Amino acid sequence: MKQSLSTILHRVDMKMAVAKSIAVLLSYLAGFYLTGSFHDESRYFGAMLASIASVVALQADFKTSVKQGWLRVVGTFIGSLIATIYLMLFPFSLTGLIVTVFLLEITCMLLKIPDNGKMATIALIVIMLISQKSPDIPPIVNGTLRFLETVVGAVIGIVIAWLMQLKEKGKTAC
Known about the structure:
Layout: H1 5-10, H2 14-38, H3 43-57, H4 62-89, H5 94-110, H6 118-133, H7 139-173
Helix pairs in contact: 2-3, 2-7, 3-4, 3-7, 4-5, 4-6, 4-7, 5-6, 6-7
């Protein structure tokens, strides 16, 4: 079945495409420079995590953006905490990674974190793998940086959603 060009183009939300592009740019730069100030070797991970957090947080409406951003921040906090505690006691190992993921899942279930903390698991895995690649980074610095990168990215996504909402309200008022 053929679809008309106008039907296909109607699916394109140019405002959201531009907003996400700006969110990723700002988050990338913020994560890159924030992390690079403390641990040059993981600055690209910082850029990546901040960018991902902004994409997760930036939703079509402000209320959903706040909710998704908050879940990302809470999940990253829990994942960072468990990974940091483990890495303060033991060096990275595949067994340790699996055990911490298991403990994290149980923790998120007990705390009723939606989707059993998928975002927490992502944060934990990244922290553990960064510690494997860069064992010189202290666990507390590693965990704190990953948390801060996520907060920065989530805030950027939420602020852009808020600005989009303000612009829409301004249009309807005219």
